[in-house]
Amino acid sequence: MDYFAQQLINGLVLGSIYGLIAIGYTMxxxxxxMINFAHGDIFMIGGFIALITFxxxxxxxxxxxxxxxxxxxxxxxxxxxxxxxxxxxxxxxxLRHSFRLAPMLSAIGxxxxxxxxxxxxxxARVKPIPPLxxxxxxxHESADGFVIQLSNIQIVVVITxxxxxxxxxxxxxxxxxxxxxRACEQDQTMAALLGVDVDRTISMTFxxxxxxxxxxxxMYLLYYGLVDFFMGFVAGIKAFTxxxxxxxxxxxxxxxxxxxxxxIETFWSAYFSVEYxxxxxxxxxxxxxxxxxxxxxxxxxxxxx
Amino acid sequence: xxxxSTETSLAKRAAGIPFILKKASLSALVALVLFSLMIGIRTxxxxxxxxxxWTRFGELASLVGLVFGGSIVIExxxxxxxxxxxxxxVPAPVQRGLSFLGRYLAxxxxxxxxxxxxxxxxxxxxLDLAILVLTYVMLGxxxxxxxxxxxxxxxxxxxxxxxxxxSYALLAxxxxxxxxxxxxxxxxxxxxxxxLLGFPVLRLxxxxxxxxxxxxxxxxxxxxxxxxxxxxxxxxVSGIPRPTLFGIPLDNSDDGLAAKLGIEYSPTHRIxxxxxxxxxxxxxxxxxxxxLRRLPxxxxxxxxxxxxxxxxxxxxxxxxxxxTAFATGAMFGGFAxxxxxxxxxxISPESFTFQESALVLAIVVLGGMGSQLGVALAALAMxxxxxxxxxxxxxxxxxxxxxxxxxxxxxxxxLIGHRAPTxxxxxxxxxxxxxxxxxxG
Lengths: 305, 441
What we know:
The complex is a heterodimer.
Chain A: H1 2-32, H2 39-59, H3 65-92, H4 101-122, E1 127-128, E2 136-141, E3 147-151, H5 152-174, H6 176-186, H7 188-193, H8 198-224, E4 226-227, H9 231-246, H10 251-271, H11 277-291
Antiparallel strand pairs in A: 1-4, 2-3
Chain B: H1 2-14, H2 16-38, E1 41-45, E2 51-55, H3 57-81, H4 92-119, H5 124-149, H6 158-175, H7 179-198, H8 206-226, H9 228-231, E3 237-238, H10 257-261, H11 268-294, H12 296-306, H13 308-313, H14 318-344, E4 346-347, H15 354-366, H16 372-388, H17 393-410, E5 418-419, E6 431-432
Helix pairs in contact in B: 2-3, 5-11, 5-14, 5-15, 5-16, 6-7, 6-8, 6-14, 7-14, 11-12, 11-14, 12-14, 15-16
């Protein structure tokens, strides 16, 4: 039971990270109708920028951990958001009215570009950082000595996720930008006729998605203490799985799917085998798409002739 | 209205140089922010695990300058060329040129390919490269059945390549079966896996299908890595037997081919044999595809690509149509895999990553999705281009990715962007691929 509770905590933390990435997928799919293949690599870039900012701040002699975290968060969100904007501008916008395969292939190309760009720029070796947030709380200690730990870093990850989700939900449901986004999602032509700047709205969608991916990258860096240039691929597919599981196009669904994938992966590793945890995640993707193609919270797609 | 538009275009031209400079400066500014940390700072883990960093402002400055200059050039080119209109019907001279090329280029290429080992007999490098190109031509033609004809977007094609390669490697090393028995078996096994993948994805369309096939490809790779007792895991399978000419080995032994023919043994014999083997396999793929396109099943594939709902309304069994497309494509992938295994003598999961799938798909798309000659030319261009960057190991994939993006922007329909109709009423009028649907299946 204690082991189960510990895995539950770990799974929820991992799921928060996946959920943050999944939101980027689901938003872009909702508006543009394409899988932003490069999103996983945007997440990786976010992790790298966070790492570099850390290094600079620490070498400047900054020691206040909350301040460092805040600066790193803002810097990596800003620069990664610009990456998201640039990717959309270069690789997707010229193809907006091209045939359906074109943006997908362009996105795959962009994903290769970003992966290899960071490999060339920062080297192929794994980059570790010393743990920044240490310590934790013992929630419960059982008779046989098994301890349920809730580390401070896990608390930080969950709280950051919740706060960002709150801001994000407010953005989508209460602001003008959010209204434009929802309008573009339903009917781009009609939205344009009613004075919505569609290009700008789509750009903003990519920017917000990339900023959230940057947060996920920072959380990943804090939680695992390392980044490498290849981490975007698998994390990206898993986050996409999460988005599909939650129902693509649905924002709460993405978060829910993220948590589900995080939990499934953690429990699979804990009770079955660590080697096959990715196989489990990918199999879930296939099974969900076969039996529940609209996901948990998605709307069914109506086929028009 | 016209006056207004002329006025604005005049105003635009008058504001040409400041406009271009402003745009270039903006791009340079964006580039500066993008590259500031990733290029300007280099991190590396030191010997004791401590991260260190150093600055590279020189590289940063030159990159930003490059972006500035590049965006000026692009903007000038854009103004010079001007907007281009879309053409749906291929104009007559172009079409005549294309049909001329189509009629003569393919036979010339084929004859050249057949004579290649004779011409370059002494140049091992060219022969090896030609074998590699032909392998990808074959993979491209195989995937073309699935993507180009049936319109099913498959991002996990490498899975069938892997199944074929491992089938041959394991059957040959464990049971000592010959290449010629294993080759059909590898094809059948790969086709079986194609059907296995096909069944669950029958209801999926477009992007979903793409992502599921990608997941399938990754699952196969992960299982190969982790099922160590069968596949050797990350270490791969080594000591895969070389192919024989129907039982006669091509080596330096007494009963080898050279000894039997009474000529002096040379290792090039095996290379030449491999070359003709893959050429035969590739031509088989091509021939089968061309024949299949004329059979009802091939027409059903193309109809499925154009409109699945109409297909169903006309009584075409979409289930079997999709499954046969998957199985046929997978079978050729399996053949290519078996050939790959026997050529390399060693296979490991590293050869079957997603990058391979993307490369083959890029070849098919660049080749114009459905054009057999286009796929062959695209494979030559891609693999040849890859070879050019062989020295720059890390930059290779970077350039490949950029090329993929640029090709999609420049010619999303591929190099040979036209389609010759399979069925026509009076006259075979080629159309631009813009009119061809890419399928939702």
